[in-house]
Specification:
mainly alpha
Length: 74
Amino acid sequence: MNWSTIENRWTDYKATAKQQWQKISDELIAGTAGKRDSLSTQVQQAYAVNKEEAERQISDWQSKQIEKPVAKQL
């Protein structure tokens, strides 16, 4: 899945991001607004890892995401 889908529908994906990175508060996860750089910064700070490791973790998480169906409007 490409990152733009995750970013554009961050409200659908932030719960699984929170499960992946439990040390990051709900507020900080939400505050990234799906911006990959922001999420990377939060992972680096919370887990004391370098940028390359944070990016590896994000890429691994991204590869496990499946596209969530869009809720139909009534």
